[in-house]
């Protein structure tokens, strides 16, 4: 008796519609976790359509994804011409001329149950605390363009636990994962899908290519990007639009020549009607201007971008219209949507690939048989859509907590109504500087504090439990922590030199 005979309802065929980062991350994950004999995996993509990716910045969870696939990090960085990332620098967001850093990792050290922020705020209100960046290894290293991976320096050294992520070329990343997936049995079909056929249950029964070829599968993964061929067009799931909270709806992107100094962070510079990203790679710098079409024209947005490049443009400007929001259901019947087909969070905090990774991880934990149990589908949708809302609130914070009054765009963002959950977080913070991570939300208390503090939100007080530590001891502890951070940064090598030594692209 075969395994299939034991479970006649097992999914035996999977069709992934669309390539790019979402499609090939899905193919690589399923090939890795299901193995070569569980189900036939086919990926359909068209070279004519191309991918949306214009250069990717990630968050530290991307390292977990690579480890799950068994990818060797240096080889991965070489193949994608990548670099390392310690956080995000925000320029002109709170007010013109002000800069702050959102670091990976934590501030300070474990203070025995109470957040480090409480002790920092206590000294800050006395006018004695240095800048918050003095207590972050990532912020200090970023400001000096330094980087290294963790080393065994003892449990008390910040060098023993360095949180970091990656920058890489999105096109090269998809190509890299394609090779990985095809080597493990995934079959790629070239072609444009011109029709989607539903069966008698209303499930997707087949997709038809322009060539006339018909591909049938038990399970379909919609990675078709903003077109949402299956989850949207075929199954009719509407789109929940968050433009009233996140008003940017277009981006223009162009790469430019790089520089000798390679900063280990993404830079986000606020502009009059949006913001500009800067992502340093080994062979170029990725740049883009995310903006509100209601406040600036394409030509004006492009002019702003081109006027603020580090070097010569290496391609023509490329425009990407988008809507921030999500599908009403991201798993419907025998179709699950991943990537842009499920929804879109603008790239302000580099969450696009995380949403693919998170969706994949949760889907594999709830992997269906051909019965497609509705209770499982409902649970998946609830969890994923909650995650969208939690990330949405964090992004809104950047726009709303601003002092800028220099344009109609910022006037709108500063005065717009915000979701109740975010309003509560802001009220709690303003009272005693407390920030809390809700359940399993992506961004932790360090991230919330970094942005609230960086956006010049100042609490009225601090956590009163911080008074349990004597004032002199608090001063000594924070001075010691800041000194350890400085010494650790001094020890770290230059970021570009580190890449040249370990993972330079050919």
Automatic annotation (TrEMBL):
Q: Binding of L-tryptophan: at which residues?
A: 349
Catalytic residues? 85
Record keywords, A-Z: FAD, Flavoprotein, Nucleotide-binding
Q: One GO molecular function term?
A: monooxygenase activity
Residues annotated as binding 7-chloro-L-tryptophan are: 85
| Name listed for the protein in its UniProt record | Tryptophan halogenase
A Pfam family assignment: Trp_halogenase
Q: Where does FAD bind?
A: 19-22, 340
